[in-house]
Amino acid sequence: MNDTGPEVTQLQRLLMAYNCNLIGQLDTDRTGDIPSRPGFGYWTQSVLSSFQRENRKRLPGTTQGVYDQQTQALLQAEAQNPDC
């Protein structure tokens, strides 16, 4: 939690692309005590966990809310959503 940097920004952009940007701006943790603080906060973790639950059969052994290599690869593939 509270990580920042290019990897977090990439994760947030992939989550936005996967969800056709219907989840709003993820580069700000809107659930924390400092609303304007960017980074991997509760909001990003919640959306990431939701993606992992939706794809649990394709992500065996993945810990929800942890952005591992398996999750990253699937999210990169799925973020190319032609339905947006």
List the helices and strands and how they pair.
Blueprint lengths: L5 H13 L23 H13 L14 H10 L6
Helix pairs in contact: 1-3
Key attributes of the depicted protein:
PGBDSf; mainly alpha; Muramoyl-pentapeptide Carboxypeptidase, domain 1; hydrolase activity; 84 residues; hydrolase; Putative hydrolase; PGBD-like_sf
Describe the structure.
The chain is mainly α. The chain has a single domain, classed as Muramoyl-pentapeptide Carboxypeptidase, domain 1 (Orthogonal Bundle), CATH 1.10.101. The protein is 43% helix and 0% strand. The protein is built from three helices and no strands. α1 crosses α3. The chain starts with 5 loop residues before the first helix and ends in a 6-residue tail after the last helix. 21% of the residues are buried. The model has no long low-confidence stretch (mean pLDDT 81). This is Putative hydrolase. GO terms for molecular function: hydrolase activity. Keywords: Hydrolase.
- Helix and strand content put the structural class at mainly alpha
| CATH fold node name | Muramoyl-pentapeptide Carboxypeptidase, domain 1
Q: Name the CATH architecture.
A: Orthogonal Bundle
Just give the CATH class: Mainly Alpha
Determine the strand fraction and express it as a percent band: under 5%
Give average pLDDT, whole number.
81
- Total beta-strand segments: 0
Low-confidence stretches: none
Query: Domains counted in the coordinates: how many?
Result: 1
Discrete helix count: 3
Looking at the structure, what is the overall shape? globular
Protein name: Putative hydrolase
Keywords: Hydrolase
Organism: Kitasatospora cheerisanensis KCTC 2395
GO molecular function: hydrolase activity
